[in-house]
Amino acid sequence: MKTAMTPLLSVSNLQTHFKTPHGIVQAVNDVSFQLKKGEILGIVGESGSGKSVLAQSLMRVVPETNLCKASGEINFNGIDLMNLTPNQMREIRGASISMVTQNPSTSLNPVFTVQEQLLETLKFHPQDQIKNPRKRMLQLMTEVQLPNPELVAKRYPFQLSGGMKQRIAIAMALMCEPKLLIADEPTTALDVTIQAQLLELIKSIRNTHGTSIIVITHDLGVVAQLCDTVGVIYAGQLVEYNTVEEIFQNPRHPYTKALLDSNPVFGNKQSSLKAMKGQPPQLTKLGAGCSFADRCEQALPLCHHTPTDLIRLGEFYYHRCSVPTLDGVANL
Amino acid sequence: MTLKNLNLTQLKIQITWFVLMTFVTLGLFGTWLAPYDPTHQDLSQSLAPPFWHSGGSPAHLLGTAPLGQDILSGIMVGAQVSLLVSLCAVALSGLVGVVIGLIAGYLGGRVDTVCMRLADIQLSIPFILLAIVMIGAMGPKLSNVIFVIAVTNWVTYAKVVRTETMRLRERDFVKSARVSATPIGLILFKHILPNVINSIIVIATLDIGKVIIFESGLSFLGLSVQPPTPSWGAMLADGRKYISIAYWPSMFPGIAIFVVVLSVNFLGNFLRTQWDPQSKK
Amino acid sequence: MIEVKSLKKQYPISGHGWGDKNSYVVHAVDDVSFVIEEGEALGMVGESGSGKSTIGQMLLMQTQPTSGEIYFDGIPISSSKKQDSKLLVGKVQSVFQDPFDSLNPRMKVRDIIAEPMSNLKSWSKHEVDSRVEKLMTQVGLSTEHLNKYPHQMSGGQRQRIGIARAISVNPRFIVLDEPVSALDVSVQAQVVNLLLDIQKENKTTFLFISHNLAIVEHVCSRIIILYLGKIVEIIETAKLHQSQLHPYTQALIQSIPVPDPTRVKIGNTLKGEIGSGTSISNGCRFSPRCPQVQAKCLEQTPQLIEISPRHWMACHQYHDF
User: What total of structural domains would you count in chain B?
Assistant: First the structure.
């Protein structure tokens, strides 16, 4: 029985590992979170943290070569996506769950017009409630604030700016009225004033359509402005998951704290930034202990060899650290 | 799994080296190592089959050609011509083409236009026509053959290197070198050339086989070394008429060409991985 | 130390696509004039099409200006004359954006850092080697990496190598084009701190080009803001929060997503696209998007005027100051 409180998406212990000549890469290593209808979740991580692989894993479009482990549970609307056949998954992809990627120049096919690409989605996923695909297309194009939709529809991607292409990508993702939209670094390649417009757009989509959205980004500002809940990823693991207010005002995990401290904020000039020491780890060389231990200000000797667990405390609060926090919660 | 892979690669490398060394030795010393004088005709032994067929004998391990010449000796001595021509022609055309490509690609503008028009002119002249004219005028000496082939062949190197140079020119590390006042020659040599070497190796290894075939074509037309001096290409061409009754005059030189081209390709792959710092971890 | 007068850079392009036979001119940099003082860290901020990278390239003498003059220590320089480029050798260096691209993948780290010094021939081989080791330590890298290749190092480490290369010849002026934009957030802070240290220690003059106002605010004492090839404002960083600002600068600040969920700014964004540098009309470049646009703005291009000490603005609104 699905109630309003039942999450739309419930991910448990997701793992995606690859086998490479240099060792096994645990790109996604034990990630769990939940997403309600109409909620915007932000996944924050740096390059190499595994956040893009996480997005691919949720859509089950992870490249097959070298894949040696894909386990866990992805419960979407009551169905476990991990148990579906490729055909069943194909029906869901693009229609119930869709994705927008970082680079609008590569996500659109340069040899087809905009309308050919937008209408293609409905061709493959015909929806009963959408009787007039063309009308729907123009409607969506207006909604994503494209000027002159009739004219733009006949254009080719190379004739449009980055911001416009990204709006088209978003329109394409919305064609089938998906329940979940995954946006992988949607504004990273755009100028700052255009980024602001796109962020506003994403929020209005949630408000108008009630779509749940997962935004993957490395930009803490984007997360603060857009998201309701935040998951912080480091070296393939979810290290902290909480509401956006708690994450920014009361970060518990040392990595989250360090990330917030080292971020230069406009209007808050310091004589030197509080930088994190060291570099992000190589995913092939992870040890048994906490992957952040080398860079952690609060690391205890046991952190380097004791494996960490993701523990859930409260509706939103997940935590992964061996060191006791001020709340008194620990994993010892 | 990895251990077996490693051994396979090592094995491939060993075999390649062995094969190439054999042919280089033949190329240098073939005339002395061959059991017979390959130009010696013995009509009584015309088209004798290789020793494993009935009618064949260990005297002629790979059989004989239509006029009784020993095929094994022909291959051993012919190695000289084929390898000499292909290596020299490829080296010469490669050198010329790479230099022109680097300069045209880096300097752009008028220099580039002139070089590319030169290349276009070269491409518009049919190879055979050029060969007939040049060798007809200068004589069918090996050096002339090498020259003719090199003159035709440089264009591929030039065009490929030029395109890659144009791409590399805009990369940040080249821009940094310019800001640091690195002289142009050093930029081309230290920054651009090492990054185009991969393409050059690939083209060159494929070229060696191509040139051996070119040379055989010239030989067939009487524009290369004159018979009875053996060359693989010529042996291939000569044996064509008899394929239905005797496969060995054509097949063994063909196998020789195949083995050399394959080995050179493996060598090329090996060199590319050896020279690429990114393959070492 | 460096003076730029009426700098212009135009690129002719032919046709906007199928069937467009007209030829257009892209005004990448349109009549830009400013001064860089010795020892200062000057920031240059703008979005795509602002011309900031092109100005950097012209100051490095890698691109020839279409018109205008650049003066270094009072001496006019131009990239076409050989002797002028010789004047700058060793005095000017650069740090580029992409840590994966700014180092030759086939050269060892020690050779990469040594290159500018080898070109100048002012040091013996032995001196160059010892300087290379000192530089590695100065940028916070262990000398054990000297014989490695770039791909064996991380993005942040590569950028430090690029910085070591740039400071190796003790340049007086360094142009940094988006030096930290391609780095992870956790590493950005390290490199920014390194740049701040170098600037303070050596009193090197920086031109810090970036689209990220937050980082520019941190590093620079003065900022130039560009829009579509023209300067719209020059202001001291310290005064950024106290003064009346150009509408575009206000919009830029407004657009920066603040990492504070209690201050959600969504809802007041600047409308419209950035526009292209080809369709240049007579009025202010920013007028199509300006929330405070007046009739005058569409007809007359505003001049860059000093509206208060060391604060320049190009806007009709504030001409009455």
Answer: 1
Nearest-CA distance C302 → chain A (Å): 22
d(CA B56, CA B62): 9
Residue B191 sits in a domain whose CATH number is 1.10.3720.10
Provide the ipTM: 0.80
Write down the residue that tokens 């009346």 correspond to.
C244
Q: Please name each of the domains of chain C with its CATH number.
A: 2-91+171-318 (3.40.50.300)
Q: Which structural domains are found in chain A, ordered by start?
A: 9-83+232-319 (3.40.50.300)
Portion of chain A with pLDDT greater than 70, in percent: 93
Which of A105, A191, A218 to mutate to test binding with chain C, by most C CBs within 10 Å of its CB?
A: A191
pTM equals 0.81
Question: Closest Cα of chain B to C89: distance in Å?
Answer: 6
**Exposed (0-12), middle (13-18) or buried (19+): which is C262, by Cβ within 10 Å?**
exposed
How do strand A237-243 and strand A229-234 relate by DSSP bridges? antiparallel
Q: Residue A283: CB partners within 8 Å, gap ≥ 6?
A: A25, A26, A27, A48, A50, A235, A236
Residue B270 lies in domain: 71-279
Q: Is residue B98 part of a domain?
A: yes
pLDDT by residue (tens digit) across C226-245? 988 889 999 998 888 887 88
Residues facing A28 on adjacent strands: A16
- Give A248's contacts in chain C (Cβ within 8 Å): 259-261
Contact C224, C234 (CB under 8 A): yes
Decide if C185 and A199 are in contact by the 8 Å CB cutoff: no
Range A59-72 burial, b when 16+ CB lie within 10 A, else e? bbebeeeeeeebeb
